[in-house]
Design a protein that fits this description.
Layout: H1 10-14, H2 21-33, E1 38-44, E2 54-55, H3 59-66, E3 72-75, E4 81-82, E5 86-93, H4 101-124, E6 129-132, H5 143-152, E7 157-158, H6 161-167, H7 177-183, H8 188-198, E8 206-208, H9 215-226, E9 232-235, H10 239-242, H11 245-258, E10 265-268, H12 274-280, E11 286-289, H13 291-294, E12 302-308, E13 311-312, E14 323-327, E15 333-337, E16 347-348, E17 351-355, E18 358-359, H14 365-379
Length: about 375
């Protein structure tokens, strides 16, 4: 029976059937001709540096894809930032991995795009609580990919329950507008009270305060209703209605403080990106970011053979020869041939991932997160959007 949600099975991916048809025809042709050359192939997005760094992730998935195949792979560490040149190098008989190219690129391209966008959001409000709210914009089968990329880039949490089970993290979130609708206009206090009575004590009491009345009025009502139990209010007003969002937040903050509710936090969501977070970060205590992450285009990785049977080779527009990439002391990204000396003080970034099909690297999300944030600071990462 086919998958009811139209997804490709893990078995098909591992067996190389999640591929473009021309790779199957390539295998048939090479086997017919008795050819299976030893090659070195590299995964790149840009041949040269462009000045726009991106986040590399998806490497653990690639390791699982290639595990047991007679190849050696070197790759950047999970969470490393890069700017051109190879992020991964594969060496072995070509037919060991020919059909895996399509899946390989997908496992790297989309998560790296998500993580790069999430890093932009993180740096838009570096001292604020920032949660990933974008799982609703992608196929549910990859929700955990989005949320892992968000955590790697430094976000504080996410909203998706099943992703939390996959990643061993508790999902965040309190109430939607649908809950408020079910109680009806004029009964907001009943909705918040029922929520307070129903959910575990560990769940933050954050009231949604923009459903029927203006944000200030509902915020004050929530504070009066829940008193000291109210942890915060969330303002999710759609962009078509909110006008000057910064002014709204300032007004709500003023009115809460004036009535002695200085401890009530303000949480903002609804189509926010790094620019809005930067503008609001001195006023709001936390943010939910969704479409800025999930709408990001995948990083346009490609895989190219750069050496065959020890001889340099490349297609037009690509660079032949086995390459290495380096982080220089000034935070620059340097690309050079691997058999030449690197830049003075440069640190080679490609590290062993597989040797003869055996995974030789361990994976740790917290370590990748620390690496991502530290490298972002080292290279002076800024949004390229």
């Amino acid at each position: 029976m086919s998958d009811p949600f139209g997804t490709i099975s893990t078995e098909a991916i591992l067996e190389g059937r999640a591929t473009d048809a021309y790779f199957e025809r390539t295998r048939s042709t090479l086997e017919h001709a008795g050819r299976n050359p030893q090659v070195v192939a590299e995964v790149t997005a840009d041949q040269f540096s462009t000045g726009a760094f991106e986040v590399f992730t998806g490497v653990e998935s690639v390791a699982r894809l290639f595990e047991g195949r007679a190849v050696d792979i070197d790759a950047l560490p999970d969470g490393q930032l890069f700017d051109g040149g190879p992020v991964m190098r594969i060496e072995g008989p070509y037919l060991e991995f020919a059909e895996l190219e399509t899946s390989l690129l997908g496992l790297l391209s989309q998560p790296s795009g998500f993580a790069t966008a999430a890093l932009e959001a993180r740096l838009g409000a570096p001292d604020s609580l920032v949660l990933s709210f974008g799982a609703r914009h992608v196929h549910p089968s990859i929700a955990s990919v989005v949320e892992r990329a968000a955590l790697l880039a430094g976000l504080d949490g996410f909203s998706h329950v099943a992703a939390g089970e996959t990643l061993s993290r508790e999902a965040s979130g309190t109430m939607p507008h649908a809950l408020m609708f079910c109680f009806g206009e004029g009964n907001q206090a009943d909705a918040w009270t029922a929520f307070d009575e129903a959910v575990p004590e560990s769940t933050p009491r954050i009231a949604l305060v923009d459903t029927f009345w203006d944000e200030k009025s509902e915020s004050l009502l929530a504070a009066e209703t829940l008193g000291d139990d109210l942890d915060g209010v969330r303002i999710d007003t759609t962009g078509s209605r909110r006008g000057d969002f910064r002014h709204i937040i300032r007004e709500v903050r003023w009115e809460l403080d004036a009535r002695g509710h200085e401890d009530v936090d303000i949480f903002c969501s609804g189509g926010l990106g790094p620019e809005q977070l930067h503008t609001l970060r001195e006023l709001a205590d936390g943010f939910g970011v969704g479409s800025h992450i999930t709408n990001r285009d995948p990083v346009d990785f490609s895989l190219d053979i750069v050496e065959i049977e020890g001889e340099l080779i490349s297609k037009r527009g690509k660079l032949s020869g086995v390459k290495d990439v380096y982080r220089t002391p000034d935070g620059s990204h340097h690309i050079g041939l691997s058999d030449r000396d690197g830049p003075d003080g440069g640190e080679s970034l490609l590290e062993p991932l597989l040797r003869d099909g055996e995974v030789v690297r361990t994976f740790d999300l917290e370590a990748a997160r620390e690496r991502c944030l530290a490298d972002a600071e080292a290279v002076g990462f800024t949004s390229s959007a």
